[in-house]
UniProtKB/TrEMBL annotation:
Name of this chain's protein: RagB/SusD family nutrient uptake outer membrane protein
Keywords: Cell outer membrane, Membrane, Signal
Domain RagB/SusD as annotated: residue spans: 323-636
Family: Belongs to the SusD family.
InterPro entries: SusD-like_N, SusD_RagB_dom, TPR-like_helical_dom_sf
Gene3D superfamilies: 1.25.40.390
GO cellular component: cell outer membrane
Entries under PROSITE patterns matching the protein: PROKAR_LIPOPROTEIN (PS51257)
Record domain SusD-like N-terminal: where: 113-231
Pfam families reported in the protein's UniProt record: SusD-like_3 (PF14322), SusD_RagB (PF07980)
Keyword Membrane: yes
Native source species: Mucilaginibacter conchicola
Amino acid sequence: MKAYIRIIILAAVCTLSQSCKKYLDIVPDNVATLDYTFRNRNETEDYLFTCYSTMQHLNEVVKSPGFVYSTEIVYVNNTDFHFFDETGFSLPRGLQTAANPSLNYWDGSNGGQALYQALRRCNIMLENIDKPIDLSAAEKLRWIAETKFLKAFYHYYLVRMYGPIVLIKDNNAIDAPVDVIKRKRASVKESFDYILSLMDEAIPDLPPMIQNQTLEYGRATKVMAMALKAEIMATEASPLFNGNPDYASFKDKEGKNLFSTAVDPTLWEKAAAACKDAITEAEKQSLQLYDKVPAVSVGTVSDKMKDILKLQGLITDRWEQNPELIWALNYGFPYQNFTIPRMTEKSPGLASSVPSNFSVPLSTADLYYTDNGVPMNEDKTFDYNGRYNLQVAGDEDASYIKNGYTTAKLHFHREKRFYANIGFDGGIWFGNGKINEADAYYVQARGETALAGPKSLYATNATAYWPKKLANYLSVYDNVFTASDFKLPLIRLSGLYLLYAECLNEANGPSTEVYTYIDRVRARAGLKGVQEAWSMYSKNAGKPGTKDGLRQIIHQERRIELCFEGQSGWDLRRWKELQDVLSKPVQGWNIYESNPANFYRPQTVYQPVFSIRDYLWPISTNSLIINDNLTQNPYW
């Protein structure tokens, strides 16, 4: 983004006095400098970038509830040696408290961004947008729209975490009395209504797409806003917020209901319409599913490997090369040193700085379909009960598993996204400095003497599975570690397709339109359509023909397609399925054993802790004391 260094400096300059934080930090204390800040176009644009600055860091995955709370990846570090703030990864262990909440986005502490400060900056921008004398009318409209988009997004982020929130429509006056400053929480409906009204005001004046990617990448567009609006509406329609009986008695101190008490099925219809509008606009702007082999450093490879590289590239290819990308942030993914296994003779020497310990549990590996496009436990041709038994890889497996290597049966005959997204013992790992498939590395994870096996307390992958999707094939882990950067998406076209299918199914049940959009995503993954795959291979052939059955299929499809992208944690939360996922132990292989018969025995890494109360974040006890108009979330 243009003048990115200035953004960081200005963000620090414009961060407001901590004395106001106790009242959501919305009372301006820098009025004397506002005339200077908004005196001309350039200074005003710099302030706009400070409004963006909070958003740019909301995609730091280790501080994202959508990433750390899904247990798609577990981080187990039982030492005093820390590579980063591990607060988020502790949440599934039941360590959240109201006295000192982790990832506190309400107040801005313990890894959480201060979203109410961000909202305050947005309001200051809107209040002063008329001051710069050299700002054109067209730019003024765009900047107002961008600021309203940001206000909507920050409010939405808070609603996803806290449910009913305090709406910051305007900043308080400097001399506002205390009873005005102590604002009350709006209901869930009021919160969503306000967020959507901001989106509707913003969308018409946003540019359809960014034309100057070098200077303006990351700024809001019409496509981005329409896709986000669709997601917001789907979230409002989902079971967590739409007539959730767990919160039927949740009221504020004056007796106002903060949650709806009845399900509104029309919300799904409205969300479906918003999804279709966003898809139409995206395709109008030539967005399409990514389906190409990356052009850099790829030599002689088989057709099977080309398919794997296509599926890897849709995340790790450069943003200007990715026609599927609707929204990604400038903040990149800086954790590839946690996602790539040691595969060369020299790589163990870097274990202290390249720990390779983002661990994928067995439950995530189990999510992926067989190569017939149905779940492992439904596939009539798959030996599900014998999936932990041993099998030796042959010529037909060569692009996926090292020829002659003994590994678990569940690693064979899986869909291509499994091989593109997950690294496993015996699995082929293309790249890491090799450009020809014949020279490709493979993962050796059994026991402490194996290259990728345990090396120290903090350089051990606890499950012997790696999130390969989050590793660029151009990155190299050898005697030095060289990462080829990429930006993790917030919204991709495939996710929008599946969201549309979900909303249609929830509104009216199975239909040709629902199948069409699911099957577009499946076809890119090399799978047959839903109806054909289930009728041919599933023990439950009629599953796609019922609303409940198709819901299960869509949910699993989203979890597979968007795995490791920080989306599943949010989806599982809005579906009210997170409690079921976290009721099961996190398991991996018996990593200290070198004999395959002993290695391939599931071991429990830890038992997650989650209850109904954890669907919403607690407001800190201190905030409740300071503002006695606030009501704590249920069960806290």
